[in-house]
Each structure stands twice: as structure tokens, then as C-alpha cells.
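Wed. Picked up where I left off yesterday with Enkurin domain-containing protein. The coffee machine is broken again, so keeping this brief.
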Amino acid sequence: MGYAVIPLPSPRNFLKKKTRKVQRPYVDKQKLQTEPRAPLPPSKVQKINKEDKTEEKNFRKENILKAVRAVPKQPVPKIADTKDGHKLLLEPSGLQPHHIFRKGFGKTPKYIKDRLKVIEERDKEVRELLNKKKAPLRYVTEDERMLMLKGLKKNWDELQKEFQLLPMVTDTVPKIKRKTNLEKRLKELEKDIDLIERNPLIYVSAEE
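Structure written out below (C-alpha cells, as returned):
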């Protein structure tokens, strides 16, 4: 059933570099015979004739022209708001006007015009309706105006005399009420007299 004791290899007989040769299978390399391919069509670059070729770009000349024609960069406007030189941008600071240069600045917006137009039409309809309900007006002649003015002044004279006859001391409630009533009537008459004197043209309702 084999060796009782397996003989060990000698330490001197160790595997050395490049001493083991591995026999690899032989491969016969054969080139396949194929038909020659057609040549590639000429590219677009090759089709361009020498006469059609543009001149080489002169970068130096173009850079000089670009530098001459370039608009110089403007510095950002700033302001100093303190004595220590603290700076702020001018545009967002609010010190430079912007809104007044807008296209629609100072003009009434369209939606407000539309609302005013609707309100005006509504008022016109209300006035027309009221004019239909109200009686037409008539002009007060000069004689009628003078007659009214004369009557108002006469009433004022009578109330003034009555007011002057009041006692100097108004120590009771009836005296106070009477004096207050006379003062109120005198002020109303003075207001009516002044209104008629300042307005020579007066119109009243035809029913009056």
C-alpha cells in the first residue's frame, strides 16, 4: 500500500528561477488571404483647393484691434456715507432716482381709468334718472330776488329788536332757551341774506 515512510526532497534541490520549462501547445499562425479594400473617399479638407484656402489667422493683429476697439470698463458707482470712508453701492442705496424714468411714471394706470369710466357712467345714469323724477327748474327774476331779500331783511330787523329787548341777565332756563333760539334764527337769516346777495342768478324748482 505504498511507502511506509515518504522520502522527503533534499533541501538543496529547491526550485530555481527559470528552471521549469512548461511545454505549451503549438499554434500555427496563418494569415487569411482577403481581397484588398477599396480606398477611402477623400475628405472635405482634401477637396479644398489651395486657391480656396483662407489665409492664416493673424492673432496678434486681431488682438491689437480688439484692444483698440474695446469699450473701457466703467467703475461701479459708489458713495461714502461715513467720514471713515465706508462705501455703499449707489444704485441700491436709494439716493439715485430710478422710478421717475419709468415709461408709465406719472400716468394713471389703465385699470383705474376703467374703474373711473364705470363710475362716471353709473353716475350719469343716476343723474338722468333723478332728472326725470325731479321737476324742471325755473329762474328767479330780479324783482322776485329783491322781494325775497327785502322780506328776509325785514324779518331780521324784527328779530334783532326782539333780541335787544331781552334782559341782560339770563338766570332762568326759559330765558336761556329764548336767547339761544333768537341767536339761531338770526344766524340763519344772515346766512340766507348773504347767499341771495352774492348770487344774482338763482334757480328754484318749478313746483315752488
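Quick read: Residues 136-205 form one domain.
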